[in-house]
Amino acid sequence: MRAVRQVETENASLAAKLKARIAADGPLSIEAYMKACLLDERAGAYASRQPIGGKGDFITAPEISQIFGELLGLWAIAIWQSMGEPRSVIVAELGPGRGTLIADALRAWRAWPQFVESVAVALVEASPVMAEAQRQTLHDAPAPLRWCARLDEVPEGRLILLANEFIDALPIRQLVRRGNSWRERLVANDDKGCFAFVEGEAVALEDQVQAAWGRDAPEGAILETRPEANRLLCELAHRATRAPLAALFIDYGHDETGFSDTLQAVRGHRFADPLAAPGEADLSAHVDFADLKTRAEAVGLKVYGPLPQGEFLLKLGLGQRRERLLERTTSAQKAAIASAAARLVDPQQMGVLFKVLALTSAGLVPPPPFAPEHLTLSS
Ligand code: SAH
After folding, report:
1. Structural contact between residues 155 and 90, judged by C-beta atoms closer than 8 angstroms
2. Strand positions, DSSP E, 62-180
3. pLDDT less than 50: residues of the chain
4. CA of 133 to the centre of ligand 1 (A)
5. I need a surface site. Which of 216, 279, 287, 344 has the fewest CB within 10 A?
6. Residue nearest to atom 16 of ligand 1 (CA)
7. pLDDT number for residue 50
8. pTM of the entire structure?
9. Candidates 125, 132, 162, 344: which one to mutate for ligand 1, based on the most atoms within 8 Å of Cβ?
10. Whose CA is nearest to atom 5 of ligand 1?
11. Measured from the CB, is residue 168 less than 6 Å from ligand 1?
């Protein structure tokens, strides 16, 4: 009870802190607002507590079924093989949540002792609370682990990068079309003591990619951009010129650039008002896969997909792994295993809304399941 009251006080103080900041400096960009709500060191949704899972705000694929992390682990092995089975490779995960995906990948890796001897795992996590949760999950990992607050702290070398529901948590900017110009959507204080969206002065578009998306936008259209994702792609492109690299991004989003507001808040597994309670809800926004793909190609990466998550997982062998798991379990668990696996691939559930984009350095062959001769992964 005391802990609950403590969190409530911290969050009340985040709202007060943001209101004071707005009163002093003027309205905040959505990017700054979202960053504070997620990562404010005392009261951000990720920085002050653990929002993932049945008792939290939302649930993710690795928390639904162990098959998800196992298949991504096998994907990493296939990439390592395509790199020529080097004696040293880094598997990095961006935003590892509770560490469940890597724990499941590590289990799948047990059948490849040579890979386990060659791999070092890097967990890229901005929140100390989440990093602690990952340490607990991974306390008996058979491979060396290191935690990094940012991708640029991950050591140089051959890199296999996994990121599930990471990009949707990176803050967005929203630009609104007004006449021939674009205005930034901001968060202001209203006269009732609440937060409200307002439009700021006209701003320049960030670059030519954005100008191309915005060219035919109708009046009132909202163009969303994600500066941190763009910086991430540039960093991957630089690394790809120095050592082989393959990255897998899995997220919810659209494969055509749209013109609408996709900022959303989820609290206790229900949609909420993004301005209502800073720090108490998970804020995220759809990933624009068309934009990601265009930008990744522009910086020289090879791009595969996006594929719907359901198709991706089935092609990697979800069906076979589910059958193997079912054979080994009691009948009481069978229904839960089957329905969890179905949730990941069912088009009405996560199978289509979630999409998978793979990026590689120029010298690597197409990764599974994008390779034309792809065979199901198995251990
Ligand atoms: N991949 C996990 C968790 C997704 S939630 C899963 O599928 O369950 C997003 C994760 O990214 C959390 O661990 C959060 O703390 C972390 N995160 C958010 N913004 C970050 C940033 N800028 N840098 C590093 N980690 C971040």
Report:
1. yes
2. 89-94, 119-124, 145-148, 159-164, 173-178
3. 1-6
4. 12
5. 216
6. 95
7. 82
8. 0.94
9. 125
10. 97
11. no
